[in-house]
């Protein structure tokens, strides 16, 4: 190793990806130890960091070029030693001049003071906070004021973020591109209007409301600003909304239909979504490549009386006509959905399959999809992955048609009651599939799927039935 050129040794060490392997290599000789010090740019630490602040200071001194740091205390207990606190963030800000990406998960000792220390990290462009309960809006504000290059901000279960000055300030900066707010109870759909001009730069938005607090967030008068203010969403590429209430002409309903460059949409248990919303979305989002719809069934009666909330084939036909680049389709109904209330018929689903180059199709509790639908998939020239969950209308006859699917290579079955061992007779020995995954199907045995694919995953837990 001593005779190898510096550049070659650097290249060799750079190809060692696993942290444990890098640690071992760095102990082989002084030369590799010194090179690892310079080359290490990523560090992930957690419960074993003890004493936390001192150990972190030692690591930062050893690796001065750290750019990405992840600190997670998942599964932490007091007997494991004290967690890193605000002083640890002071160490990071003072010893990691290149820090650009920071993730803090379950760091329950971090407060607003710690975030104020991070405000001096001028290169910080990505911050992810997952369950940091002592952080408030004041701490977020001090950080966004100091970190003027922050383009990625994720807040997950930050329960005490009440102040919204940080949202308004972030909106004025017009630099945020990736914003994720999940289960932050004090932040509602209407508060997103405070982003103002930053909507123009936003490429990825994930917004998830805690389902237990969905109806407790009351719209204030600021929500009316959605109707008066132009929301520029032309650069939005990915939109994910979970447990949101979407009212006609208000809030997030103003965003749907304005995303001209949208590539991925995920609507999960969103109450209030109408056919007109999906039709408008489809007409404007010709670049759409992935759509995921999970339809709620626990719709309150007052909402049901005022709005036609059940999506119909009108939505799917609009997607089929306008989204000609669509590759991934996921449709799911919540557990309480009655078969007769299923909003999408087989014809609507097949219209998308026939018109779009769908490579991945996932159906969960879609009672309208049956053996006739499986027969129609025999002409799906692009389909490579099929996932069927709780699709009880599919029988052995339908599954046997899988051998005739032109390009299918991955099949996943879960909790399907109508399929037995006989359904795999046409697949066994053909090795047509690269992967077959069977989970919790009561009438399928492990013996029956042997030889049905190159790789097989099998699990049988029937507790879900009782």
Automatic annotation (TrEMBL):
GO annotation, biological process: SCF-dependent proteasomal ubiquitin-dependent protein catabolic process
GO CC annotations on file: SCF ubiquitin ligase complex
Location of the F-box/LRR-repeat protein 15-like leucin rich repeat domain: 316-449
InterPro entries the UniProt entry points to: COI1_F-box, FBXL15_LRR, Leu-rich_rpt, Leu-rich_rpt_Cys-con_subtyp, LRR_dom_sf
COI1 F-box domain sequence ranges: 4-38
Designated name of the protein: F-box/LRR-repeat protein 14
Species: Durio zibethinus (Durian)
Chain's gene name: LOC111292908
């Amino acid at each position: 190793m001593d005779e190898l050129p510096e550049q070659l040794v650097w290249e060799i060490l750079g190809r060692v990806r696993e942290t444990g392997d890098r640690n071992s290599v760095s102990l082989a000789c002084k030369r590799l130890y010194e090179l690892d010090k310079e080359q290490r740019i990523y560090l992930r630490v957690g419960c074993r960091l003890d004493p936390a602040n001192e150990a972190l200071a030692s690591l930062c001194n050893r690796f001065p070029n750290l750019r990405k740091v992840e600190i997670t205390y998942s599964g932490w207990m007091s007997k494991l030693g004290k967690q890193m606190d605000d002083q640890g963030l002071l160490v990071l800000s003072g010893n990691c001049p290149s820090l650009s990406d920071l993730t803090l998960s379950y760091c329950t000792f971090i407060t607003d003071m710690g975030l104020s220390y991070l405000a001096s990290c001028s290169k910080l462009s990505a911050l992810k906070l997952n369950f940091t309960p002592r952080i408030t809006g004041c701490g977020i504000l001090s950080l966004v004021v100091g970190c003027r290059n922050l383009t990625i901000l994720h807040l997950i279960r930050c329960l005490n973020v009440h102040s919204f000055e940080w949202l308004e300030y972030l909106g004025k900066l017009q630099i945020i591109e990736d914003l994720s707010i999940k289960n932050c109870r004090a932040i509602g759909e209407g508060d997103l209007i405070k982003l103002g001009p930053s909507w123009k730069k936003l490429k990825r938005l994930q917004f998830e409301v805690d389902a237990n607090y969905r109806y407790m967030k009351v719209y204030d008068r600021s929500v009316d600003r959605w109707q008066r203010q132009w929301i520029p969403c032309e650069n939005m590429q990915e939109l994910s909304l979970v447990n949101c209430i979407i009212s006609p002409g208000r809030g997030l309903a103003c965003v749907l239909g304005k995303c001209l460059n949208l590539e991925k949409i995920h609507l999960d248990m969103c109450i209030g979504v109408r056919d007109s919303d999906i039709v408008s979305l489809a007409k404007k989002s010709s670049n759409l490549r992935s759509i995921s719809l999970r339809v709620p069934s626990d719709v309150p009666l007052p909402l049901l009386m005022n709005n036609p909330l059940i999506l119909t084939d009108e939505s799917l036909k609009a997607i089929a006509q306008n989204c000609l680049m669509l590759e991934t389709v996921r449709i799911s109904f919540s557990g309480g959905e009655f078969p007769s209330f299923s909003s999408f018929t087989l014809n609507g689903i097949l219209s998308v399959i026939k018109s779009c180059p769908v490579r991945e199709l996932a159906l969960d509790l879609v009672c309208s999809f049956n053996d006739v639908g499986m027969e129609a998939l025999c002409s799906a020239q692009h389909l490579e992955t099929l996932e069927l969950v709780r699709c009880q209308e599919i029988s052995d006859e339908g599954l046997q048609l899988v051998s005739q699917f032109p390009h299918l290579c991955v099949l996943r079955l879960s909790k399907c009651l109508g399929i037995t061992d006989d359904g795999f007779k046409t697949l066994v020995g053909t090795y047509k599939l690269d992967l077959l995954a069977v989970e919790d199907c009561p009438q399928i045995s492990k013996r029956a799927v042997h030889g049905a694919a190159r790789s097989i995953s099998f699990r049988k837990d029937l507790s879900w039935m009782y």
